[in-house]
Design a protein that fits this description.
The chain has one domain (37-139): Four Helix Bundle (Hemerythrin (Met), subunit A), CATH 1.20.120. It is mainly α and 140 residues long. It is globular and about 40 Å long. Helix 4 packs antiparallel against helix 5 and helix 4 runs antiparallel to helix 7 (118-129). The chain is 73% helix and 0% strand. It contains eight helices and no strands. The chain has helices at 2-14, 16-23, 38-47, 52-61, 65-82, 92-114, 118-129, 132-139. Heme C binds next to helix 3, helix 6, helix 7 and helix 8. Heme C binds at residues 38-39, 42-43, 46-47, 53, 82, 87-88, 98-99, 102, 128-129, 131-132, 135-136, 139-140.
Length: 140
């Protein structure tokens, strides 16, 4: 079940190429090459000194909307990628829900930045900052 759900998500995201690859014998993991893994998402998105969350927050504050847009796009791509990974532990249903929430938060950050709406951006960034512990407890 778990595998299937993940495969289906991947297939939908990557389109026809993925379907063709997956239907061939072996080599299925090749198509995952570009998918950032959870650690990369966590490091670049949330942890590094120049992590996306912190950068976006500062850029919104400084009204550097173009830079904020660049980082919000990267964060949003991570939002879309997270759920295509498999966590080290926890059940699939919970992972799916938490990843959907994370994706909708990263999407909200991007939408707010594109509208130059600082209040909405801070709200969405705050939602992400408040979501770390819950997901780690279940899946890290
Ligand atoms: C939707 C789930 C989810 C959310 C939300 C989440 N994380 Fe994580 N995080 C994980 C999982 C799963 C791991 C374990 C990855 C592994 O060990 O492969 C992890 C690992 C990490 C790590 C360790 C990375 C490493 O190199 O081992 C850091 C740091 C981290 N998260 C920071 C954060 C911070 C900060 C936030 C909130 C701003 C956050 N995470 C939000 C799921 C999440």
């Amino acid at each position: 079940m778990a595998r299937k759900t993940i495969r289906r998500g991947l297939t939908a995201a990557l389109g026809v190429a993925a379907v063709l690859t997956a239907s061939g014998a072996g080599g299925q993991d090749k198509k995952d090459e570009k998918l950032p893994d959870i650690k990369e998402i966590m490091q670049k998105g949330h942890k590094a000194t120049d992590n996306y969350l912190a950068q976006i927050k500062a850029e919104v504050k400084g009204e550097k909307w173009e830079d904020a847009g660049t980082h919000a796009k990267l964060l949003n791509a991570f939002g879309e990628a997270l759920g295509k990974n498999k966590p080290p532990k926890g059940d699939d249903k919970s992972w799916k829900e938490l990843c959907e929430k994370y994706a909708s938060n990263t999407k909200a950050v991007l939408a707010a930045v594109e509208k130059k709406d600082a209040a909405a951006a801070n709200k969405a960034l705050g939602a992400i900052s408040g979501s770390c512990g819950g997901c780690h407890k279940a899946h890290k």
